[in-house]
Amino acid sequence: MRIKPRQELLDIWSATAKVAFTPVPGTKGKGEWHWGGRGGSNSISDAEQLLCLMLPATEIRQFQLDEPNSTDEDLLKVLRPFGGAIDIPQFLVGLVMDYLDRYTAPDGTPIFSGGSYFSAFLPDEEPTEEQRKLAVVESFAASIPLMLSSLGFIRVFSRSVTRPELRARLDKVEQAASRRLSAAMIGLLRSFSIFVFADDSDYAEALLRTVNQNGEPRRRVLEDLRVSLREVAAGLRDLTFGLTQVEQIEREDMLFECGWSWGVHSNATPVEFPVDLGQQVPGLALDAPYLYFTVVALDAIADLYNDRTRLLRLLDDDQLKLASALRLRWDLTQRYWSTVASFGTRRWPLEDIPWRTIDKAESDYFSLLVTSIAARNLSVRPNDSDLQRLGEILSELANRSRMTRRPLREDPALQLHSPGVSIEVEGATDFSPRLSWVAADFAPLLLKRAAMVAGMVDRIDLRGRALNLADDLWDHIALRRSVVDDGPGLWDDPSQVYPVSPGDQGISWHHTVRVVESLVLAARLADDQPLRSEPLLEHASSLLAEADHLYSQELLAGTSESGTSERKRLEAVRQRIRRAREIMSARPGTAVSLLLTALGELDSLVASRDTTEVF
């Protein structure tokens, strides 16, 4: 793996400290933090800005900052503007509190507005101020990992805190973070949508065209699809929270999609919760799933069930109930899209690039989104054959997006990177002006999925291919970062690799946090045990048997009672054999290396004894 996650993350932290913080000369950890990046400050961008610091600090053991006595010197060096080992955790907690204050209304209602992430669908128009204040799934989703990482950080840091005023401050931040987490989970519950449509509608025709990769008769494909989705439909039928079309889902003349709308949809009802979280305003979003926001929500919900969340018990009993309801929707949505993506017995619909949605929009970006869902579904049920196909799809998307191939002149593929894919976000009633959400994070999202697939594969050759793809993607993405004080900067500037307009040169925290997420996955992969080769294990076992036997012969020959030099050499052989036996099952290659050295030493002892006997 050519990616060096430790060094790259240190560079990102260093650049973040330089562009987002202006220290007061002569002080420790005092200065001004600059919220916002490209497009200004909003609840999503600011959360992503914080996650660039918090994700590595809470997800990678070697980057932990919440235990001051064990903080690595390299980390202290790059974060020196924030103070020393004791100051840095307090500084980060202060940033979290500042974020919570900024995005909490005077009446205590958490704010999840889209802000500058909303744009006008038509040129020469601008969203109204009211439209920019609309709550959006991306903000709910960004708050979940940020609040979980903050709660976990505080939970660990508080163990080393004795000052009463600091403990009181930590308790205050913890309570506020927990409230926002609950509100974000409720927001995702109220944004979940099921769209049911007749099997003779244009939507059905588009869906059947996507899944029918073998040219089967329409009636047969329709029946097979219904059978494949029967369990999903049965599970969705039992859901609540304003799902008005759910009663029609099992009708024989209907098909459906499920997932997340762009915000709280128009049919969502309030969710009862014992803690006062402020207002649950009526939803305005179209009651239909959007592929982009579905993937964003699925990624966030997965964090509610990761090992750190469970081990530190970051969710209270009431939040566990919300998490359980979200997990059910997560499972059903994963099953639905994975079934559609891999439907049939030959070529998968997902392999028919680009993916076409039921409203007949098509893009390689949508193929990447569906691949993201399929990959996460396979993480629950790993299958090397299916993972190999996913790896080939990712490789094809890398080629088509000109990340691993040179672009043509005026190549339409470059629109994936600049300006991105425009997705119209519609309301239950017409918006004026019409609103758009621009997704331009194709490159870092592809890297993230390649790293994810590499971590799931159990075959050495397949992992090697996935890692090679991730390395190639990283080589491309690394060229798109800015320069900060003559050093590596942040993202994203596609004009450095493509003939496109430079556009806004401000920092995109959205792109940067996607890169951080990819590097966190790469760091976990590097921290895991290497895959075990069965042929290599058999070879190591054979070498161990021979080494053991020859060592016993040397003991029988009395080498252990010979001179000091021979005794030391024999003891070194014994230590190598012992070490090889300990690690052989996990690291057979290293065991082979140790045993070959031991066998060489044993042969040397035998040869020297034979020479002595001759004379």
Helix fraction, binned, reads 40-55%
What's the total helix number?
Answer: 21
Largest beta sheet, briefly? 3 strands, antiparallel
Span from first to last CA?
Answer: 54 Å
Percent of residues in β-strands: 5-15%
Number of strand elements: 11
| Overall outline | globular
Strand order of the largest sheet: 3-9-8
Radius of gyration: 28 Å
Low-confidence stretches: none
Give the overall average pLDDT: 90
Please state the structural category.
mainly alpha
Explain this structure.
It contains 21 helices and eleven strands. With 615 residues, the protein is mainly α. It has a three-stranded antiparallel beta sheet with strand order 3-9-8, with no helix packed on it. A two-stranded antiparallel ribbon has the order 1-2. A hairpin with a 2-residue loop joins strand 10 and strand 11 (487-491). The longest helix has 28 residues, at 164-191. The radius of gyration is 28 Å and the shape is globular. 44% of the residues are buried.
Short account of what is shown:
The chain is mostly helical.
Which helices and strands appear, and what pairs or packs with what?
Elements: H1 5-20, E1 21-23, E2 31-33, H2 43-59, H3 73-78, H4 87-102, E3 118-120, H5 129-132, H6 137-157, H7 164-191, E4 192-198, H8 202-211, H9 218-228, H10 230-237, E5 254-260, H11 291-303, H12 307-311, H13 317-341, E6 355-356, E7 362-363, H14 364-380, H15 384-400, E8 421-425, E9 435-439, H16 442-456, H17 460-478, E10 481-484, E11 487-491, H18 509-527, H19 534-556, H20 564-583, H21 588-614
Helix pairs in contact: 1-2, 1-18, 2-4, 2-6, 2-18, 4-7, 6-7, 6-11, 7-13, 11-13, 11-14, 13-14, 14-15, 14-16, 15-16, 15-17, 16-17, 16-18, 19-20, 19-21, 20-21
